[in-house]
Design brief:
The protein is of the alpha+beta class. The protein has one domain. Helix content is 62%, strand content 11%. It has six helices and four strands; from the N terminus they run H-E-E-H-H-H-H-H-E-E.
Length: 209
């Protein structure tokens, strides 16, 4: 279990956070010194809004590339890292866009939903195998479940997994818009500047909303 967790952190979780937070197409939001938390800010750099396209791309590319890489490792008999990479890409990968949008609530909701969906698929598949190993037809397996229950769990989990993946894919763009709106709320900004004609430093005052 410890070995599995280490592989999971090194191969999936940490790279996803790095890609989402340190993206070459964007710049980090500025660090402001607040006088009035709701209105007046001192700033030395301009706010750079995050891009919806980057969020969409991360939500699509991270799970796709992780799954492909995981399958490649499995074909080369690198079983544990391959399984972790493929499974982690499916469950965590679609949340990369929401990580980029810095929406922890959406990140957690997506991961939990897909983890539940994965559990449903696993249990449904296991029950289906038990039914096949026992007798044919619709009948109860040794644990008291029947074939219809197994199919409902398997396909229900698969549907939930697909829904959650596409939901995060498009919801990440919405969360980027929300992030930009919150960071660009109306405020006065005082920034140091230089006046070339007067050859003197000064302060520029601007109102953004």
């Amino acid at each position: 279990m410890i070995r599995f967790t280490i592989h999971f952190l090194l191969i999936i979780f940490i790279p996803t956070l790095v890609v989402a937070q340190y993206n070459p197409l964007t710049t980090s939001p500025p660090t402001n010194t607040h006088i009035d938390e709701n209105f007046i800010h001192f700033s030395t750099e301009e706010f750079k809004p995050k891009k919806e396209g980057v969020a969409f791309l991360l939500s699509a590319a991270v799970p796709t590339m992780s799954f492909i890489a995981g399958q490649a490792l499995l074909k080369n008999d690198v079983n544990m890292p391959g399984a972790v990479l493929a499974t982690g890409g499916i469950i965590i990968g679609p949340s990369a866009g929401n990580m980029y949008a810095e929406n922890s609530k959406a990140v957690g909701k997506g991961i939990v939903t897909r983890a539940i969906a994965g559990g449903m698929i696993t249990v449904g598949g296991y029950m289906g195998i038990l039914n096949q190993l026992s007798h044919g037809g619709v009948r109860k397996d040794p644990d008291g479940f029947n074939e219809i229950t197994a199919m409902a769990l398997f396909f229900g989990g698969a549907g939930l997994l697909v829904y959650s993946t596409f939901y995060d894919l498009f919801n990440s763009m919405k969360n980027v818009r929300k992030y930009n709106t919150e960071k660009q709320s109306a405020k006065f900004t005082f920034s140091p500047t230089y006046f070339p004609k007067e050859k003197a430093p000064g302060i520029s005052v601007s109102l953004s909303f």
